[in-house]
Every structure is written in structure tokens, then in C-alpha cells.
Amino acid sequence: QVKWKGKDLFDLVCRTLGLRETWFFGLQYTIKDTVAWLKMDKKVLDHDVPTEEPVTFHFLAKFYPENAEEELVQEITQHLFFLQVKKQILDEKIYCPPEASVLLASYAVQAKYGDYDPNVHKRGFLAQEELLPKRVINLYQMTPEMWEERITAWYAEHRGRARDEAEMEYLKIAQDLEMYGVNYFAIRNKKGTELLLGVDALGLHIYDPDNRLTPKISFPWNEIRNISYSDKEFTIKPLDKKIDVFKFNSSKLRVNKLILQLCIGNHDLFMRRRKADSLEVQQMKAQAREEKARKQMERQRLAREKQMREEAERTRDELERRLMQLKEEATMANEALMRSEETADLLAEKAQITEEEAKLLAQKAAEAEQEMQRIKATAIRTEEEKRLMEQKVLEAEMLALKMAEESERRAKEADQLKQDLQEARESERRAKQKLLEITSKSSYTQSMNSSTTPLPTDLPSFNLINESLSFDFKDTDMKRLSMEIEKEKVEYMEKSKHLQEQLNELKTEIEALKLKERETALDILHNENSSRGNSKHNTIKKVS
């Protein structure tokens, strides 16, 4: 509305977002190439806003926390900071070394896609994502597939982290970057030397224009007695009166007003952090702890359900596999039975033929015996006839003997065939009995399988948990939660060491692919600081 003040518009945005940690944020606009922030106690249209319609304001973080994990309570606050810091890193407004860029990208992927699943997240699934600063991509002779492979390797290690946890891990790494949360302004000292003034949550810092990473001088907020400006001249009075007053000039009066706004806001937050939390903040933190505990319990419940479902599926698969195995055994037993029946039929037929042959041989042997008797009874008068007759008798005897042996052999063979037939019928009986056993097992397995295969969507135990779940957190719950938080801190320190080792390993791995001629001034400065063992915080301590 026309009569609205800045606070009315700002409060409307915060209510729409459900945001309660409003002190970090503001509505930003640009006028004459200079950034400005909407004043809460002044009418919106009384500001020196652009005349063209519609008037555009950007809802952004104006002040940054010293420690994101301790200070950012609401999940929406964390999410808004994550989005803003990620954009600043990708737009190269915050310098980020290549190895840290890959790690941050992996947390951004975890926040967006959830847990890594090789069946879903196949090669090329990050092809359309903007995850790394262009400066990093251009610095190495690496294809998009190679970058994706390295990001995915770290992404797979973040399994089990919810979106808010992944975003908080992102912020915890980003807050240690030298340019995180720093607003830079071009200034001149009394000698006319061009410098940069940096304003952030820790204090005021003076930089060389060519080095935004390492400040020359720092003034922590607790060591500053007074800040003021007159026209374009700005004055910083240290708490220690022995230290000289620092004066500088900015390009525009509007810039001095902005610097003073940022100084007042950051100083107020600096002092607030060192006091006991207000009742509102205590209430928000208590609600956040309860919400975190509730989500943790919900995640554990879902993990248990998932585990039970997976175990049920594994049991079902095992039963199906066993059923298939039993079916195969039954099929093989059927085939064996059929072969046994065929063999038994063949043996029976062969035994019958052998028995008939034996009868036939016995009949021939009897005929030969009769012929021999008839020959003996025949009188042959001449010696020659007698000799011939004797020879025939001998041959007849030999033939009768052979016939008797053959008949005996055939009789034995018939007996053996009868024995084989008996064994075949016994084998057939055993095969039928085994098939009957397998069939009974198969039906039992099928009944077991039918009772376990369906995966019920609402098991009684789950309903019981859901119905009895209470979020009335008592002192014992809070103590347990505190102990868990302490344990998480210890684990975090161990993970940090492991993380640094991983970062160094990746840096060594991709160093051979670096194009030295494409290194920017900030890359060179960062490498020099790293080789000296300088970090953001110990550098500020040294130059304070």
C-alpha cells in the first residue's frame, strides 16, 4: 500500500516465508549503481527508489552469522542462507578453491536429490546442473563427465543426510572461506592510497585492492570504541586510546551511509551473540530442538520400516528361489520316473523274448534227442554206414550238448532279467515316493510364500508406534539429546580431519590436469596462504 513503511513490506515478506529470524535479512535495491537497503521506519515510496515500475526489491541476507550451526535456528533461515551463499560462490563473488568447490557441490546434490541410488542417478544425471564456478571448470583439462564422477564419489558418502543437514554442512564449510559474508567498499586513506574496506560479522578489515583474501589490518568489533562519518570522511576510533584513529574517504556520501548501517547492524549482532539469548530466541531454539528430535525419531522409524521391508523382500526372494529349486527337482524326478518306467517296460519285454527263446531251444534239444534215439534204433548193415552213423550220432550228441548248454544259459539270462525287472519296479516305487515328498514340500512352501509375499502397508506394530508416539519431551529426553549433540561434535571433529585429508587427496589428484596459465590472482593468493598454513581466522588474529 502507498502509506506502507519499509517494516510493513518487510514483515509481509517474512510472514509469507514463515521466517522468524528476521534480524539477518533486509530488502535490497539498486540506485545509481549503488546498493541500498530499505529502511524499516521510512515510507517505502519516500526512499530514493528507481522511478520505473514495478519497483523491484531483493530479499537477501544483510548480516551473516559467525557460526551458522549455532546461530541459525529455523530450517527456512538455513535454506535461505544456503541458496544465497551457493549463488555467490557460483557467481564468484566468494572465492572458493577447486577441491572445496567439488565438496560443496556434492552437498548441494545431496540437498536436491536425497540419498544416492546408482539405479536412479546414472551417468549424466548432473549434466544440466550448475554446480561449479566457471573459473574452476576452466582451470583444469577435465571433461564434464570427469567432474561429475568426482562429485558423485563424494555425494555417495553423504547417504542418510536430510536436506537441512546437507545444507548446514554446506554452510559450515562455506563460512570458513575468506570472502564469506564480507561487504567490500573502495576507499582512500589520508595519503590518497586506494584500499578496500571489508565489513563482516567479525569486524572491519582493510585490504589491498588486488588481495581480497588477506586483510592488512583488522579491527574486531570488541576493540572499536566509535565509528562516525562527516560528509565523505569516515573515522574509526579504537578502544585502546594509544592506537591512532583510522580515517578514510569513500567515493560517495550514500556509500558512507551504507557502511555505517552495516557497521551498526553487525556490531549489534556481535554483542548479542555474547549475551544470554532473549526469551524469543530461547523459545525458537527449544522448538527447533524438539523438531529436530521429532524428525530424528521419524527418520529412525522410517529406517526401521525400510529395513523390515527389505528383509521381507529378501525373505520373499529366498522363498521364491527355493520354490523354483523345488520345482526343478520335481521336474527332474518326474523325468527320472518316466525313464525308469520305460526301462522297466523294455526289460519286461526282453525277459519275455528270452523266455520264449529258451522254450524254443528246449524244444529243439528234445527233438535232437529223439532224432539220436531214432538213429541208434536204425540198423545199418555195412561198416561204412555204421561209421557214418556213428559220426552222425557223435555230431548229434555234440549238438544236443550245445543245445542243452545254450538252454541253460538262456534260462539263467531269463532269471537275471526277471531280477532286473524286479529292481526296476523297486526303483520306480522309490521315485514315486520321492515325487510325493517333493510335491508335499512344494505345496507347503507355496503356502508359506503366500503368507509372506504381500508387504502390508500398515503393520500393527507401526500403528502402535504411530498411536503411542508422543513429543512431550521431558528433562531426561533433553539430557539425552544434549549427550547426542556432544557426541555429534566429537564425530564432527573426526570427520573434519578426514574431510581435510580427502580435500588434499583430490587437490593432488587434479593438480596434474591444471592449466597454470589460467590461474587467477585469487588462485595464486589462496595457494600462497595455504602453503604458509594461513586460514581466515588465524590471519584476522595476526593482523588485529
UniProtKB/TrEMBL annotation:
<dbReference type="InterPro" id="IPR011174">
    <property type="entry name" value="ERM"/>
</dbReference>
<dbReference type="InterPro" id="IPR000798">
    <property type="entry name" value="Ez/rad/moesin-like"/>
</dbReference>
<dbReference type="GO" id="GO:0003779">
    <property type="term" value="F:actin binding"/>
</dbReference>
<feature type="coiled-coil region">
    <location>
        <begin position="482"/>
        <end position="523"/>
    </location>
</feature>
<keyword id="KW-0472">Membrane</keyword>
<dbReference type="InterPro" id="IPR046810">
    <property type="entry name" value="ERM_helical"/>
</dbReference>
<feature type="region of interest" description="Disordered">
    <location>
        <begin position="524"/>
        <end position="544"/>
    </location>
</feature>
<feature type="compositionally biased region" description="Basic residues">
    <location>
        <begin position="534"/>
        <end position="544"/>
    </location>
</feature>
<dbReference type="Pfam" id="PF09380">
    <property type="entry name" value="FERM_C"/>
</dbReference>
<protein>
    <submittedName>
        <fullName>MERL protein</fullName>
    </submittedName>
</protein>
<feature type="region of interest" description="Disordered">
    <location>
        <begin position="410"/>
        <end position="429"/>
    </location>
</feature>
<dbReference type="InterPro" id="IPR019748">
    <property type="entry name" value="FERM_central"/>
</dbReference>
<keyword id="KW-1003">Cell membrane</keyword>
<dbReference type="InterPro" id="IPR011259">
    <property type="entry name" value="ERM_C_dom"/>
</dbReference>
<dbReference type="InterPro" id="IPR019749">
    <property type="entry name" value="Band_41_domain"/>
</dbReference>
<keyword id="KW-0175">Coiled coil</keyword>
<feature type="binding site">
    <location>
        <position position="257"/>
    </location>
    <ligand>
        <name>a 1,2-diacyl-sn-glycero-3-phospho-(1D-myo-inositol)</name>
    </ligand>
</feature>
<dbReference type="GO" id="GO:0005886">
    <property type="term" value="C:plasma membrane"/>
</dbReference>
<dbReference type="InterPro" id="IPR041789">
    <property type="entry name" value="ERM_FERM_C"/>
</dbReference>
<dbReference type="InterPro" id="IPR000299">
    <property type="entry name" value="FERM_domain"/>
</dbReference>
<feature type="binding site">
    <location>
        <begin position="39"/>
        <end position="42"/>
    </location>
    <ligand>
        <name>a 1,2-diacyl-sn-glycero-3-phospho-(1D-myo-inositol)</name>
    </ligand>
</feature>
<dbReference type="InterPro" id="IPR018979">
    <property type="entry name" value="FERM_N"/>
</dbReference>
<dbReference type="InterPro" id="IPR014352">
    <property type="entry name" value="FERM/acyl-CoA-bd_prot_sf"/>
</dbReference>
<dbReference type="InterPro" id="IPR029071">
    <property type="entry name" value="Ubiquitin-like_domsf"/>
</dbReference>
<dbReference type="Pfam" id="PF00769">
    <property type="entry name" value="ERM_C"/>
</dbReference>
<dbReference type="InterPro" id="IPR011993">
    <property type="entry name" value="PH-like_dom_sf"/>
</dbReference>
<dbReference type="InterPro" id="IPR035963">
    <property type="entry name" value="FERM_2"/>
</dbReference>
<dbReference type="InterPro" id="IPR008954">
    <property type="entry name" value="Moesin_tail_sf"/>
</dbReference>
<dbReference type="InterPro" id="IPR019747">
    <property type="entry name" value="FERM_CS"/>
</dbReference>
<dbReference type="Pfam" id="PF09379">
    <property type="entry name" value="FERM_N"/>
</dbReference>
<dbReference type="Pfam" id="PF00373">
    <property type="entry name" value="FERM_M"/>
</dbReference>
<dbReference type="Pfam" id="PF20492">
    <property type="entry name" value="ERM_helical"/>
</dbReference>
<feature type="domain" description="FERM">
    <location>
        <begin position="1"/>
        <end position="274"/>
    </location>
</feature>
<dbReference type="InterPro" id="IPR018980">
    <property type="entry name" value="FERM_PH-like_C"/>
</dbReference>
